[in-house]
């Protein structure tokens, strides 16, 4: 790990404070860029070939083909957040029991509450820092990580722990932002995103808390230290570090290179049935497809299944 220091206790406190505040934002409609229905259908198409088949539906077929019996008897969720993806894995018959770890006490409390409300008895949520987490050797059939690995500074250690925790034949599934560390967007990416943002009216660019979304730009390290010191800390190394320790058996890049920075915090303004919103998103999705196909842009997000070497 070059040039990146583990998070201090003070930095960990700032991360926890950040996710305490973020909890209120989870009530925003389509809080995340990939939850907007038109975008979600595009992601499904890129992953499964059909706008109606999601990642978790596909995993229900892929994992047994790779030798994993479903539902997985024991699973662990790394950086579980508020547990939404864990509950989806349960609904799709992929996991039976699951232990979830997260650095945020507020997220752990919310995840446990939502699991109880859904009638899921086999989920156990625990406070844990991915940078110092220890897991029992050979304890799990499945390790899952959803939008959490890009928050880990100690990627090498985390992958080693995950590999040892898997029983023989066990698998790791990730759904992850693997774009530039600290969101050091490429020039082509910034031109595309900012060009699209300038087309939008102020109303379309205003967040639910009344802030006009600015054009994207590179942020200094001090910005991340003040807001969330873990954010995208080594995201650009997520795949290389994994591939040094795991064999990737199935991989689906699904873009987000334009859509993610463009829609962050304003996805809820793109309502279904709004002709302008649907036309605009269709054009943005087509642009992202084209720029990735030509190699001008790489995919910032990827879903994959891997096995320890």
From TrEMBL:
Q: What are the recorded GO MF terms, alphabetically?
A: S-adenosylmethionine-dependent methyltransferase activity
Q: Does the keyword Membrane apply?
A: no
Sequence ranges assigned to domain Methyltransferase type in this UniProt record: 77-174
Q: Would the keyword Metal-binding turn up in this protein's UniProt record? A: no
InterPro entries, alphabetically? Answer: Methyltransf_11 (IPR013216), SAM-dependent_MTases_sf (IPR029063)
Q: Where are the transmembrane segments?
A: none
GO terms classed as biological process: methylation
Q: Which Gene3D superfamilies match?
A: Vaccinia Virus protein VP39 (3.40.50.150)
UniProt-listed SUPFAM superfamilies: S-adenosyl-L-methionine-dependent methyltransferases
- Please give the name of this protein: Methyltransferase type 11 domain-containing protein
